[in-house]
Amino acid sequence: MRVVSGTCKGRALKAVPGNTTRPTTDKVKEAIFNMIGPYFDGGVALDLFAGSGGLGIEALSRGLEKAIFIDRDSKAIQIIRENINVCQFEGKSEVYRNDADRALKALIKREISFDYIFLDPPYKLQQLVSLMEKMDEHGLVHNGSMIVCEHSHEVELPASIGGLTQVRHERYGIIAITIFLKEQKG
């Protein structure tokens, strides 16, 4: 696993030991960023269910100014911190050990909104729709925000969730990527 492009291109990233996390492959990561970028001029990302932090780190490498990484696994948090250090993104990163619901409540209290949100929950615990409803309802996304969902190809997400509209869906073997865009209605 490595950083595919940007300022840290080619930098090796550590994976979380064991089989509790499933890192996004370099091929899928490159496809995601070709769909949403590929490069950025600032912006803030949330990498929820961050695992090794690969998606958020890739976004920083490609020009985002800040990323918040959240995972509930202590081993994942340690690996995220190590990967951030390797890329020297300490000043652009916040890392929290928390479950998704608690993390969203804390972010809502901070009144923060994100330009890009990466959601890659465990396939067995699909909660993408309820998470996106909560994010939309509580202002974690704004007009132009994108939410990138990585999920099993067997999961079919609705065309719209609240103020979010599905704008892209691609399949890579057993993995699917679905992208939602927050658009102003009317």
Which structural traits does this protein have?
single chain; 186 residues; alpha/beta; eight-stranded mixed β-sheet; 5 helices; 8 strands; 28% strand; globular
Describe this structure in words.
- This protein has 186 residues and is of the alpha/beta class.
- Helix content is 28%, strand content 28%.
- The protein has 5 helices and 8 strands; from the N terminus they run H-E-H-E-H-E-H-E-H-E-E-E-E.
- The chain has an 8-stranded mixed sheet.
- Strand 7 (164-172) and strand 8 (175-182) form a beta hairpin.
- It starts with 25 loop residues before the first helix and ends with a strand.
- The model has no long low-confidence stretch (mean pLDDT 94).
What is the secondary structure topology, with strand pairs?
Layout: H1 26-36, E1 44-48, H2 54-61, E2 66-71, H3 74-86, E3 93-97, H4 100-109, E4 114-119, H5 128-137, E5 141-152, E6 160-161, E7 164-172, E8 175-182
Parallel strand pairs: 1-2, 1-4, 2-3, 4-5
Antiparallel strand pairs: 5-8, 6-7, 7-8
Overall morphology: globular
Strand content: 25-35%
Helix content: 25-40%
The end-to-end distance, rounded to whole angstroms, is 43 Å
Q: Please outline the major beta sheet.
A: 8 strands, mixed
Neighbour order of strands in the largest sheet: 3-2-1-4-5-8-7-6
Chain oligomer state? single chain
Which structural category do the helix and sheet elements fall into? alpha/beta
Radius of gyration: 15 Å
Number of helices: 5
SSE topology string: HEHEHEHEHEEEE
- Enumerate the spans where pLDDT stays under 50 for 5 or more consecutive residues: none
